[in-house]
Specification:
- By secondary structure, the protein is an alpha+beta fold.
- It is built from 3 helices and 6 strands; from the N terminus they run H-H-E-E-E-E-H-E-E.
- It folds into 2 domains: 70 residues; 70 residues, Transcription elongation factor, GreA/GreB, C-terminal domain (Chitinase A, domain 3, Roll), CATH 3.10.50.30.
- The protein has a 6-stranded mixed β-sheet with strand order 3-4-2-1-6-5.
- Helix 1 packs antiparallel against helix 2.
- The radius of gyration is 20 Å and the shape is elongated.
Length: 160
């Protein structure tokens, strides 16, 4: 798996998500400001509800824009077996039940998923418990995290 290709897919997904969010924000704004949605009495709240939605959509647009900017400015380096896993690493993990997954450690856009030839890759950040525990680890290392009181163990199978 090529981390530059994964990075490019992440950028493309963020651009597509930004476009969708911008269109949704524009639609919500137009609904909130449309003359038919002016309140006629105190129980007529359609315009108010639409304005809340528009504000939320605008925040979402800005969040995606910031994620895109942080991911665009990410400099990818080859894996350095002296420094270990760092932001920009693409890595394979195996849990204690033998299930494998691919993760991309990015500065932002946590939870985003891209598909690389049928293989899902999930974006995580160093702010997550797993991301934080992976920083500085090496191929073959094991990490352990506790999520909602449940202990989970993972082995790092591959790093790029």
């Amino acid at each position: 798996m090529n981390k530059h290709a994964v990075h490019q897919l992440i950028l493309e997904k963020l651009v597509a998500d930004l476009d969708i969010a911008q269109r949704a924000a524009q639609t919500a704004y137009e609904t909130a400001t449309h003359e038919e949605n002016i309140a006629e009495n105190k129980y007529d709240t359609l315009g108010l509800e639409a304005s809340y939605l528009a504000a939320g959509q605008a925040r979402r647009v800005e969040e995606i824009r910031q994620s895109l900017l942080r991911c665009e400015t990410l400099n990818l380096h080859p894996y350095d077996d002296q420094r270990g896993i760092e932001v920009g690493s693409l890595l394979g993990l195996e849990d204690e039940h033998g299930r494998q997954q691919w993760l991309f450690l990015a500065p932002d856009a946590a939870g985003l998923k891209v598909d690389v030839v049928g293989q899902p890759v999930t974006v995580i950040t160093p702010r997550s418990p797993l991301g934080k525990s992976l920083l500085g680890k090496f191929e073959g290392d094991e990490v352990e995290i506790v999520v909602a009181g449940a202990r989970q163990q993972f082995a790092v199978t591959e790093v790029k």
